[in-house]
Design goal:
The chain is mainly alpha-helical. It has one domain: Amino acid/polyamine transporter I (Up-down Bundle). Strands 1-2 form a two-stranded antiparallel sheet. Helix 2 packs across helix 16, helix 8 packs across helix 16 and helix 8 runs antiparallel to helix 18. The termini are far apart. 54% of the residues are buried. It is found in: Membrane. Its main location: membrane. It is a multi-pass membrane protein. This is Amino acid permease/ SLC12A domain-containing protein.
Amino acid sequence: MPKEPDATFEKTTVVVTATAAEDDEAELARMGYRQELRRELSLLQNFGMSFTIISVITGIPSLFLYGLNTGGPAVMVWGWIVVACATMPVGLAMAEICSAHPTSGGPYYWAAMLSNPERAPFTSWITGWFNLLGQVAVTTGISFACANFLSTVIQFGTSFVSTPKSTIGIYAAVLISQGLINTFGVHLLKYLNNVSIWWHTLGTTSVVIAVLAAAPKHQSAGFVFRTFIDGTGINGNEGWGTRASHAYVCVIGMLMAQYTMTGYDASAHMTEETQNAAVAGSVGIVTAIGCSAVLGWFLILGLLFSIQDLETTINSPTGEPVAQIFLDTVGEKGAIVLMVIVIGAMYFCGTFSVTSNSRMMFAFARDGGIPGHKFFRQVDVKRGTPIRTVWLACFLSFLLALPSLGSSVAFSAATSITTIGFYISYGIPIALRVIYRRRFTRGPFHLGSFSMPVAIGAVLWIAFISIVFILPQANVRVFMS
């Protein structure tokens, strides 16, 4: 597990002095590691990693049906604002710690440095495994959603009928291609990152403008901002039913927003490949959350105002409400174009999720945190990338999707696992920052007097959602006759 920083660490060839401390490699040496990965990313590209993995045009369409059934438009619109406002303090608290410890390990390394030294190894190990769980689950959720949308668009104008087995096959092909890009195209990742930023920004804007402009009619503001739907019942049951339970539905309905607003620790995991990492990693986290919050709300509003018939949208024969909105507004050919935009964003998102995932696993293996760590800690010298953890990430993500062959709720479970795993791993170092405040030496990015209130608010929110998203998401009561 991570060791206490040592300025005379023997494994590195960099001599750490007061004047050299600003240098990225010297800072990495101070934390006990030598430079093994290629440090080629700029602040924009570091931001792009988190922005791409948050990917509002991936998360929102993926869980749009869940959102419509679990609270409906009102919860989707207002829940997004609540989650965005609550997520920003989490991001700010993480950014402050990232600035002090800019390493690929991210949360698990922070936990080791901020914990009581006697408990540091165990605390770091627990944090690392929660983060790894979130990393694997988010790659599963993203790339499986990409496979689902590919299955849907293939059916447009063809006789192809999607089945769970065909979707799993497409999913495997998606993961393999993303693994190959992260293996042989690593030198292209920074350029793909730039493309992804524009694809997400312009693509999301184009989708919203297209459906709003082409929609034969628009829903009223009352429908979008005030309509509440409790469609959580399954097996013929109604929803939770009572007025008191509406609050419960509103709370669990925020999963769509909170699942989307995850993965911004990618900026931390990429710091060993980022120039001026102590600042760029922190700014990347905060700006990715802010930009995604605005763009995501814009997308939700555009889609909700463009719904033509709510019942048809929810029970769409395509299985995807967003695809039905596209069909109802721009027709089949136009829908194919918009679906390509969404699928492209999902593919970029999944590709860079594998990148972030592999860096976290590499760092964790480097510190002996996973089985087979001596094998997985190796970096390909020619390409300067941890190829073995790239394929470990793809393999584990594929395994996590296999339950979808026999369960219709597997994707929903993956989103909950993602959210809980990520946020517990975020919350542990932030909580330690509050408890052992004297162990924290701030970096160039800091919150000053706001540091402690922001951190406390972040911990409270994480504790809340970690409980909420374990709770049942559907009413499966069985009535005795």
